[in-house]
Amino acid sequence: MSALLQVVGVTKRFRGLVAVADVSLDVQHGEIFAVIGPNGAGKTTLFNIIAGVYRPDAGSVSFDGQRIDGQTPEAVCQAGIARTFQIVRPFPALTVFENVLIGALLRATDLAGARAIAGDTLRLLGLWERRNQKASALTLPDRKCLEVARALATAPRLVLLDEVMAGLRPTETDRMVAILRGLNREQGVTILLIEHVMRAVMALAGRIHVLHHGATIAQGTPREVTRDPRVIESYLGTEAPV
Amino acid sequence: MIASLIAATPRRALVLLALLLAALITAPLVLDRYLVSVLILVLWFAYVGQAWNVMMGFAGLLSLGHALYVGLGAYITAGLFVRLGIGPLAGLPVAMAAAVAVGGAIGWLGFRFRIEGVYFALLTIAFAEVTRIAFDHLAWTGGAAGLFLPVSAEASGAWWNLRGGPLLFYYLALGLASGAFVLCAILRHSPLGYRWLAVREDAEAARALGIDVFRARMAAVSISAALTSVGGVFYAFYYNNLFPGQTFDISRSIEMILGPIVGGLGTLFGPILGAFILTPLGEGLIALTEKAGINAPGAKAVFYGACLMAIVTLAPNGLWPALKKRLGIAEEEA
Predict the structure, then answer these.
(1) Cβ of B210 and A94 within 8 Å?
(2) Is pLDDT of B154 > 70?
(3) Fewer CB within 10 A of the terminal residue: chain A, N end or C end?
(4) pLDDT for residue B332
């Protein structure tokens, strides 16, 4: 069985600065895969390449066997990859419901169908009570939830989550972990996440990929990765918070 | 579509709308000719304001050259009528197609080459100005000397050629303004309408949700241009004379967009409210200065400028959102 997402030898330079260097990874159907690494390691750049924001200078990205590198962000989303932004980008003047409705319109054949999807997604993420609030009026944790809800409303097969736990309180993190796990198990959504909150990474990820200065320094199961001396040195510190 | 829209609208809003419509239908029975002419202007500005609002209010595209589409609609139908005897009903599709083509060209240039925000606005001004100069030199439509529609035919009562008295134009303007309101209400609550809002709020985030930003923007420009050109047809046959320097002038573009800004960008009732506030005040100011014997041709522009400044500082979202709350008809989603 081939991987759902296949990144092969991807390199991206910005004016000579190598942001991502020859990175390869496979995300299998139905797994939760984490990309970790220090700030500036190239994680978000890698996400932007997968999501169609940047065209890689070398290498390829395939989704479900189809090449998607160099395609537009809208085409990548239509193909079934939804993403959240590290710095959340809700539609501020629209209500929470409208935000999610717009995501749901991608797959729904009519407005009534989209409304139903939006309602279900909002309930799933615990935002239903806030549906009539303007997105700009939400607190940061709620905006993070909205970002996830909006992406999920597009009914993706793979969702790219860029630091959705950052800024959440521990109880909120646990809640988000539970939501993502449920989504993965019950609806079979494959998840690729960038995360600094190791507590969440350890709770969720089946496999972890570690980037440092744009290059892969380790990959494997959480157990393997957290014992890797190079990972400990460059990212986790001497004692891994497991 | 309309049924679900009506169902989602608060009952109070529907009653108020029905009352307003009834008042406007019966207004000519009680108003004199001058006041009817003012109301025609109000409705005209409500109509073109609504059309402009599709671009700016819904899709977030600032056009400062909407006089271009008014001029195209006016000149094409008037030219076909005067030169070839083709009536405005037959000329209308030609005018709309031309407006969509020109709007599409501006949109294509702007969106393909990522000319955004104020630079896009400059592009719209440039196109309007170039077209004005072109029509200044186009002999077929009379050039700078103007194009005149046969006024004698006005008495013939050939309403299908838009020849008739003020009442014909009054009810036509009312029909246009009401029709545009309903059309925009449908658009605003359609999938396309939601995509426009997403693009207006954050184009990058919209793309990440699978929205083709280019297509959404092109749709907004095309619909807005087509609707505005219909306003131009009305303009030509109502005034019976066209001069490029007036029809395509940037001051007209500005006057068209003040109503929606004052009323509330992106709202459905904003363009109507804005037209009802600004146009009578502007016309009243002209009447006052004339009566006082003051020759102040720029008075209206100064007044509009003051209104704009007041709105931008006091109620940047326009007057309609506040008024809506006061009337108790704020709608809810879901």
Answers:
(1) no
(2) no
(3) N
(4) 45
Residue corresponding to tokens 């989704």: A63
- Pairwise CA distance, residues A7 & B137, whole Å: 60
User: Does B214 lie at the interface with A, CB-CB under 8 angstroms?
Assistant: no
Q: What is the ipTM of this complex?
A: 0.90
Q: In this complex, do A78 and B190 lie within 8 Å of one another by their Cβ atoms?
A: no
Give CA torsion, residues B165, B284, B177, B73, to 10 deg: 70
Determine the angle formed by the axes of helices B191-201 and B166-188, rounding to 10 degrees: 80
C-alpha closest to that of B265 among B203, B184, B182, B174: B184
Q: Which ranges of chain A have pLDDT less than 50?
A: 240
Q: Pick the closest to residue B207 from A93, A204, A76 (CA basis).
A: A76
- Euclidean distance between CA atoms A224 and A227, whole angstroms: 5
Beta-sheet strands, E only, within chain A = 5-14, 17-27, 32-36, 58-63, 66-67, 81-83, 158-162, 190-194, 207-212, 215-220
pLDDT tens-digit map of B101-126? 999 999 999 999 989 889 999 999 99
Provide the total of helices (H) and of strands (E) in chain A, helices listed first.
9, 10
For A119, which of B191, B212, B334 is closest by C-beta distance?
B334
**pTM for this entry:** 0.92
CA dihedral sign, ordered B302, B303, B308, B309: positive
Report the alpha-carbon distance of residue A77 to residue A61 in Å, rounded: 14
A72 touches chain B (CB under 8 A): yes
Among the partner residues B197, B210, B212, nearest to A91 by beta-carbon distance: B197
Q: Determine the angle formed by the axes of helices B270-291 and B319-327, rounding to 10 degrees.
A: 110
Query: Which chain B residues contact residue A127 at CB under 8 A?
Result: none
Beta partners for residue A64, in sequence order: none
Q: Does A47 touch chain B (CB under 8 A)?
A: no
Q: Is A115 an interface residue toward B (CB < 8 Å)?
A: yes
